[in-house]
Design a protein that fits this description.
The chain has 333 residues and is an alpha/beta fold. The protein contains 13 helices and eleven strands. α2 packs across α11 and α8 crosses α13.
């Protein structure tokens, strides 16, 4: 059988066929890589210190996730600059699905308002993969503070301007923004003490070095042990864990909602099929009783959703928190 290519075949056609062959050869490795993913361990960068809500949620999810993917999933903490250090590391990593970020939604929705010269653009340089949890904040005070409910606390704050202090995981963190909402809506003043993470802030609240804190859930075990007083929830709804504890909206701070969504991101350009697979597997993990129990213990609520819905949530939060940041003139560390 004779080949269809002959000496009379036009040179242009020969050139086009040659280029098509080269293009096909270049596309094969990429397609094969996506088809065989994951073929090696996956790293999840948590952009906050160990012990905080982001770290605990990441570790709760990654253990069953590695079983589902058939590869080790290793957590690495890279805190600092309100999450920007870990966020930048992931944003500038290869977009191959082997480096992920676990972060509070604040790095995407809040940090651009705090840091006018960020070393990366979290909206353009990262893609949402999967939400993990809606994280509530709980207003807790040291046990020796002479108040027993939220009404007494607000009156005490009002009567003692500048005499109380509150700890946060850092400038612009969701607990910090919650406290600034409180100060604005209740017309009170307290001293802000920023820490490098929620865990050290909680330790100082337990030790009495600060008077109160909006806790992202890591201190609820101490509330149950009687080491802290839980006065209110900074959410639009009461917590299922503490149905008798009122929201701040209920006691007069109308519209008070400091909830944030924690979840996973990947470098922009990560293959869509890898993002889809990760989203599907993480959502399955979030549906398991063991992971739901771990997240609920933090006072959070598992929040499976699509990448598009997760991204839309960050956009909504950017508008509402951005207005607060501008009004209170809050700046990054």
């Amino acid at each position: 059988m004779r080949s269809f290519l002959t000496l009379s075949t036009p040179r242009r056609l020969l050139g086009a066929l040659a280029l098509a062959g080269v293009a096909s050869a270049l596309l094969l490795p990429a397609a094969a890589g996506a088809d065989t993913w994951p073929g090696k361990p996956i790293k999840v960068v948590v952009n906050f210190p160990a012990g905080g809500a982001a770290d605990q949620i990441a570790r709760a999810v990654t253990v069953p996730l590695q079983a589902a993917l058939g590869q080790p999933v290793v957590v690495e903490n890279r805190g600092g600059a309100g999450g920007n250090i870990g966020g930048e590391a992931v944003a500038k990593s290869p977009a191959d699905g082997y480096t992920l970020l676990m972060s509070s939604g604040g790095m995407v929705s809040v940090n651009p308002h705090l840091y006018p010269k960020m070393p990366f653009d979290p909206v353009k340089d990262l893609v949402p993969v999967a939400a993990a949890a809606r994280v509530l904040v709980f207003l807790e005070v040291r046990p020796t503070l002479p108040v027993n409910n939220i009404e007494e606390f607000l009156k005490y704050l009002k009567a003692n301007p500048g005499k109380l202090s509150f700890g946060t995981p850092g400038n612009g963190s969701s607990p910090h923004l919650a406290a600034e909402m409180l100060k604005t809506q209740a017309d009170v003043f307290a001293v802000h003490v920023p820490y490098r993470g929620a865990a050290p802030a909680m330790q100082d609240l337990l030790g009495g070095q600060v008077d109160f804190m909006f806790d992202p859930g890591i201190g609820l075990q101490h509330v149950k042990a009687g080491k802290l007083k839980l006065l209110a929830v900074g959410s639009s709804k009461r917590s299922p864990l503490f149905p008798d504890v009122p929201t701040l909206d209920e006691v007069g701070l109308k519209g008070f909602d400091a909830d944030t969504w924690f979840g996973f991101y990947a470098p922009a350009g990560t293959p869509a099929e890898v993002v889809t697979r990760l989203n599907r597997e993480i959502n399955k993990v979030l549906a398991t009783p063991a992971v739901q129990e771990r997240i609920n213990a933090l006072g959070g609520i598992p929040a499976p959703m699509s990448p598009a819905d997760f991204g839309a949530r960050a956009s909504i939060d950017s508008k509402r928190f951005g207005a607060l940041i501008k009004a209170r003139n809050i700046q990054g560390d």
